[in-house]
Amino acid sequence: MQKYSGFGLFKHSLTHHENWQRVWRNPTPKKKYDVIIIGGGGHGLATAYYLAKEHGITNVAVLEKGHLGGGNACRNTTIVRSNYLWDESAALYEHSMQLWEGLAQELNYNVMFSQRGVYHTCHTLQDMRSNERLVAANRLQGIDNEMVDAEQLQKEIPSLDCSKNARYPIMGASVQRRAGNARHDAVAWGYARAADALGVDLIQSCEVIDMEISDGKITGVKTKQYGVLKADRVGCVVAGNSGVLAKMAGFELPVESHPLQALVSEPIKPFLDTVVMSNHVHGYMSQSDKGDLVIGAGIDGWVGYGQRGSYGIIEHTIQAIVEMFPCTSRVRMNRQWGGIVDACPDASPIISETPIKNLFFNCGWGTGGFKGTPGSGNLFAHTLADGKPHPIAEPFSIQRFHTGALIDEHGAAGVAH
Amino acid sequence: MTQQNRLTSGGRIDRSTPLTFTYNGKQYKGFKGDTLASAMLANGIDVVARSFKYSRPRGIVACGAEEPNAVLQLGATEATQVPNVRATQQELFDGLVSASTNGWPSVDTDVMGMIGKMGGNMMPPGFYYKTFMFPESLWDTYESMIRKAAGIGRAPKEKDPDTYDAINQHCDVMIVGAGPAGLAAALTAARGGARVIIADEQNEFGGSLLNSTEQLDGKPATEWVRAVVEELSTYDDVLLLPRSTVNGYHDHNFLTIHERRTDHLADIAPVNTVRQRMHRVRAKWVVLATGAHERPLVYANNDVPGCMITGAVSAYINRYGVVPGNELVVMTTNDYGYQAALDWADAGRKVVAIVDTREAAVGDRTEAARQRGLNIISGSAVIEVQGTKRVTGVSVAGLSASGAKVIGSVTKLKADTVATSGGWSPVIHLSCHTGSRPVWSDSVVGFLPGPTVQKQLTAGGINGQYETAVALQEGLDAGQKALAEVGLAVADVVLPEAKTLKVAAPMSLFHIPHLKPTSQAPKQFVDYQTDVTAAGIEIACREGFEAIEHVKRYTAMGFGTDQGKLGNINGMAVAAKALNKTIPETGTTVFRPNYTPIAFGAIIGRNAGALFEPERYTAMHKWHVEQGAMFEDVGQWKRPWYYPQKGESMQQSLNRECMAVRNAVGILDASTLGKIDVQGKDAREFLGRVYSNAWAKLAIGKCRYGLMCGEDGMVFDDGVTACLGENHFVMTTTTGGAAHVYEWLEIYHQTEWPELEVYFNTVTDHWSTATITGPNSRKLLEELTDFDVSNDNFRYMDWKQITVAGVPARVFRISFTGELSFEINVQANYGMAVWEKLIEAGAKYGLTPYGTETMHVLRAEKGFIIAGQDTDGSVHPYDLGMGWCVSNQKPFSYIGKRGMNRSDCTRANRKQLVGLKTKDPKQVIPEGSAAVLDPNGPKPLEIQGHISSSYWSETLGHSIAMGFIKGGLDKMGETVYYPLGDGTVIEAEICSPIFFDPKGERQNV
Ligand SMILES: Cc1cc2nc3c(=O)[nH]c(=O)nc-3n(C[C@H](O)[C@H](O)[C@H](O)COP(=O)(O)OP(=O)(O)OC[C@H]3O[C@@H](n4cnc5c(N)ncnc54)[C@H](O)[C@@H]3O)c2cc1C
């Protein structure tokens, strides 16, 4: 792998950047792999990378029906944090957080992980109680999270309306200062490049249309473009399409696919240097390095695969944003888009064995799986390598919907992100 | 300087109405009818921006929505600042204040430009992914430097003084674009009797006809436009919307139109007018007549001010009477490009050359130029431009037949303006919004709208039809088709005669080669605003970013505020060439709303400020305000939180209110609790299915408390339901949960059990509820009713229809405080009157108003839960110690039964609700605190549960708390610890959550 650095840039500028190597190969698929990963989003690519790097399994293919990182990986609003409520999720997201810290160096790709802090504003007494509970739990879990009062908050975020005139005046906020944003494309590309360098075959424009299953065991997948590709183990990481793939394998998932939208303003001069989210007023916002205000909207109540959401959601979201940041009223919205998120009833993901032997699923990350990308890949690689889940992933088994050991993060997951 | 580029006659400007505007602090003059851009060009302003990455000087390129460079800050006052206004779309008004946004100390003399020049080579696409990584600790510093450079314009620092609104519209035919095609369609549809909306983003209708000297029926085309607009204005069912951009096309023919009502008048909307309005349109049929955008060619230094597209040059001359330079060189791949040279020559300025990339093209326009004696250089191209802040000359060279290589020698020509045309790209954005994939056409050399499931028609330029006669005919056809589709007869329309000019075939060429390879040639810009060059796209392809989406994301092409209207197709062509593929093989582009940016304020309309989420008040709100109550937001309601008396701290108020209830009588405004009227012969059965407990035997006149669980068995709401008649109940919900419960009932009824006959009606607002509670409450009620409210006649958990203070009332004898209580419900209109009567009569019994906080304390003393506070979606009735509220005898199951009986839900050691008594009775455990067994144990400490409710109990003289502890119900008397943020630890003993009157005797008296 060609090493990237500031010096490298300088060196290449002397030869007009004509000698940069390819970031990844464009291989023709082999007939058989040790492990096939379906889905070349952030999670699938991270899985491939950790399989190769930490488990030495390099005879791996990632099959992506479109282009790498073209799904939710490049559509999300890039919030990364680990202040979840329950011990199980806190462990999962903190595992991921620790991988985020240092990821750019590990991948030799600047994923621009920016620990600019994430605030959850509290507008009611119940908001305060929930956030104080979260902070108390996080403290014991060893995860940074603290409360700030409205006055302090106003100092830290001048553009936020912390006055008593607001419809739901802000009473305080919790803030995880290690949390923040990262550059979504770079995460997918960085993992892809590193996985490719370790020998993983990244096969783009390769859609899985069926599963090869006999005696309750998977032996390979059928693809639209390359026919059957064999594999000892198959990991499915297709986010919004998980239900479709599960159907191919003959079982159902407790997952619903909904459109989730986001939008950006035109680029404006520095306005907000952190991330603010409000479960109560229901909106959240950050500002990209380019200057766009990046705003998350809610999910549509109905299911669908259209990657387009309803306009009403956009209206509601911007109402919330202008309520929180009144000075944005004359700022202009540039673009909106949607992705399909795979939502579990308890707002926690599934990293699990399935009824089919050697077939594993990693899904259900719903509105908040970008932050989980490194952790998800890392743990899923372990699951695929060992054939059984890593201890951190164990509680996220599909079995929990049978046993009732749900990990209900609706409170902490709150507004879609 | 006075408008040195303004012609003395011609154009659609009003020379008798001069307007003054400022740009970067300097005053200039323009005319009514100008755009800010045309006025700037008239005044010879060349540099309007510094580019984002390389800080290169940039000038105006286009004349409409596709303009990438002239993006300015507008606003005369702080509150009226608007960032990123495209000067080409901003009408000039007197007193307009504008400024460029980048460049230091100014756009003209910019220091960053030097850095851009020197460091530009170090900034290939994606350079930031490749650097700023070492040392890790410095990333924060790097990042803050990057972030400081962010943005184009800036947000105001003050609140928006303007208002906005929205209108819902319905129509038979929605026509987008009022050029020849759109107008023909509108005329046809209107004459046929259809309900029509026609919108155009420009200040007047006419589209391309406004920019040209074209004739219809032997008269200037604009006369036909005027006649059509006049006729359209006479129809009641035709809505004409100029200055209105259709910015989004959504599923099921839902479109949004952004109408700018006052931006052409002043900085701030005149009094009593809205600045902008959104029309939310549901159309039976949509006609897209959105025309086409010209594509500039990509050549070296093509971003030097003075480089424009040919159509814009014609438009500035013909529409605004402005010639944006003195010496013009045209470079074109098609006949239409010649028009700019003809118009330029007509304006009396010098056409240096028309450089045609084609070898020998013969069309009517080429011949007109030839006859005028203009210098036509065929089979050649402008391969490079000279100049920095303005074009000073061009290098022209011969091209190979395919256009791939430069051949022959280079000639230098002196010029200050270069107008290029690489052909036209149909404006297919709206059709893409609905998910339709565009289709490449080799003959049009552009993408056309693809197949769609919408009821959508297209006409004119959007179909790659650029001749007016054809556009008119297509518009008429679309209008007739729409009429037929909505069931109306064919309309009688005769189109005006347009001269059809002969057009030679265009050449498919996008990127002009240079003597040097692209990587070494001077920069050839593809996307101006994001500073994406042809070399950059080649690098992306070389590095393996081959999918067009990858190319775009890696280079940022198309991510500007113009969303790549000028550059995207050129970029795809450069990528296709680099990848040795055709354009359609490289991929299609995806456009998303908005077509052009829209103010947040416009999108939210009236739903801002006080109308963001209107506050809900009870009928007694005024009284509470007068009593000086502090309020709490619960759902959308303002509820009295507590009633401080002079000099009281909050705790003192609470203590006083609590003691009044325990010792005398208190009064609570409970009107906000959700109330749902449930009727129908299966109402009782339905209740049995949505509540965990039994309802079969609840007699008329009785009330019962119920728990509502989700499918997972977890409690999400609770409340008392009264049986009003055999098939009639009124259900109470929590204040915040009312809407959700109502939806829940409807969802279950409509999707799961439609066979049940049951009807729901939300009646929360119909009733006012005054709860009187405390030992004196009966005496108080007796004063206001003739009814016998003795314990024998009016039992606990009964409800009675009686008269209270002369008003019919439903009185429920239920209790949330543990005291003798009556909840008096009267029609909301009488609420205040009855309340005041109660207050008056209550004085002698020590009646004290209390708020939600006291209510919380009193109920916690009794161990009553608050759904949402003592539940969190993870606890079922047994966890709450409320197994008594579950009936497993019901013949039909109930929601949550299966969920709460899963193995994990019935295991030992689940978190269970208990009471907690602090060792130090004065200490109140903060709500939310986490419990551990041994605060000094090894880290991380295992969390045993959390405190959900915690208060000082004045009644008991010690603090009380409710909370969850793993296996708590079996751990009575054991000790747990709550480590706090400040390092201290609170010790508490697990106890029953019923702290007061455990036998429940007081409510039964
Ligand atoms: C608008 C929006 C905002 C969001 N904001 C945040 C946020 O702020 N923070 C956060 O943490 N999370 C956020 N998320 C969620 C996050 O994006 C997702 O949870 C996460 O990206 C999912 O993992 P992924 O990257 O692997 O998914 P994807 O990128 O969607 O990867 C799945 C891949 O599978 C491929 N695929 C599907 N079917 C097949 C098939 N049959 N054969 C082959 N390949 C197939 C798809 O093409 C796709 O590339 C947001 C999501 C959206 C839509």
UniProtKB/TrEMBL annotation, chain A:
One of its GO terms (cellular component) is cytoplasm. InterPro entries: FAD-dep_OxRdtase (IPR006076), FAD/NAD-bd_sf (IPR036188), Rhodanese-like_dom (IPR001763), SoxB (IPR006278). Pfam families: DAO. Its main location: cytoplasm. Its cofactor is FAD; FMN. Keywords: Cytoplasm, FAD, Flavoprotein, FMN, Nucleotide-binding, Oxidoreductase. GO terms for molecular function: nucleotide binding; sarcosine oxidase activity. Residues 35-79 form the Rhodanese domain. The keyword Endoplasmic reticulum does not apply. It is an enzyme of class 1 (oxidoreductase). It catalyses: sarcosine + (6S)-5,6,7,8-tetrahydrofolate + O2 = (6R)-5,10-methylene-5,6,7,8-tetrahydrofolate + glycine + H2O2; sarcosine + O2 + H2O = formaldehyde + glycine + H2O2. PANTHER family: FAD-DEPENDENT OXIDOREDUCTASE DOMAIN-CONTAINING PROTEIN 1, SARCOSINE DEHYDROGENASE-RELATED. This is Sarcosine oxidase subunit beta.
TrEMBL record, chain B:
Residues 172-429 form the FAD/NAD(P)-binding domain. InterPro entries: 2Fe-2S-bd_N, FAD/NAD-bd_sf, FAD/NAD-binding_dom, GcvT/YgfZ/DmdA, GcvT/YgfZ_C, GcvT_C, GCVT_N, Sarcosine_oxidase_asu. It holds the Pfam family GCV_T_C. Gene3D superfamilies: 2Fe-2S iron-sulphur cluster binding domain, sarcosine oxidase, alpha subunit, N-terminal domain (3.10.20.440), FAD/NAD(P)-binding domain (3.50.50.60), Probable tRNA modification gtpase trme, domain 1 (3.30.1360.120). It comes from the Bacteria. Residues 911-997 form the Aminomethyltransferase C-terminal domain. GO terms for biological process: tetrahydrofolate metabolic process. Residues 522-603 form the SoxA A3 domain. Belongs to the GcvT family. PANTHER family: AMINOMETHYLTRANSFERASE, AMINOMETHYLTRANSFERASE, MITOCHONDRIAL. This is Sarcosine oxidase subunit alpha family protein. It comes from Amphritea opalescens.
